[in-house]
Amino acid sequence: MVNYEIINVFKDKTGMRLITLGYLTLFTLLLSSCMAQPQQDTYGTLKGTIGVYEGNCMPGPGVKPCEPRPISTAVFISSLTETYTEELLVKQIQSNNDGTYEVLLPPGKYSLFLGDGDRVVCTLMQCPNTCFCNPFEIVKDSTTVIDAELDHATW
After folding, report:
1. Tally of CA atoms within 13 A in the half-sphere of 103 that contains its CB
2. Most buried pick, 3, 34, 74, 150, via CB within 10 A?
3. With contact defined as beta carbons under 8 Å apart, do 71 and 50 qualify?
4. What's the chain's Rg over C-alpha atoms?
5. Upstream peptide bond of 61 is cis (omega within 30 degrees of 0)
6. pLDDT digit string, tens, across residues 34-63
7. What is the DSSP track for 6-69?
8. Of 115, 105, 112, 110, residue with least CA distance to 140
9. What pLDDT is attached to residue 63?
């Protein structure tokens, strides 16, 4: 009832213009908020697990192979490159305590880097001709799985 009376007061003083302007403003805000959100149907998913190798991982008879321990760390996703630079950074996320991570990305080719203390590191692949850091491709409506590890072990 109060809202109705307020609208009537505005209507009496300024006519329908204020009400129409209010509806137009509301419509514009709703439309712009819908447009600002990424459309999930045009994205693909990147997910995986981050781990760390630690200790003596030297292979030998009767020695169990080393397994990476899941960790929470920064995960940096950049345009496809061989070295990390902030200018190429597309997204930065944090893996969960169990090492898992998941993020939506637009289709394209990317590199994955990991935070290791105060450094940003990667594994170079596709060498010797052209080297890229953990290269992967995101395809619309698909899931790409990239597991990555930090190496603090003795081999």
Report:
1. 21
2. 150
3. yes
4. 25
5. no
6. 554 455 569 999 999 999 999 999 988 988
7. HHHHHHHHHTHHHHHHHHHHHHHHHHHHHHHS--GGG-EEEEEEEEEEEEE----TTPPPP-PE
8. 105
9. 85
User: What SS3 state is found at 129?
Assistant: coil
Tokens of 84: 């990390």
Amino acid at 110: Y
The amino acid that residue 101 corresponds to is: Y
Which residue carries 């920064």 as its tokens? Answer: 74
Backbone phi, psi, residue 49, to 5°: -130, 140
Q: Which residues contact 17 (CB under 8 A, 6 or more apart)?
A: none
Residue type, 58: M
Residue 141 in tokens: 């409506």
Residues in the chain: 155
Between strands 119-121 and 108-116, the pairing is antiparallel
3-state secondary structure of 107: coil
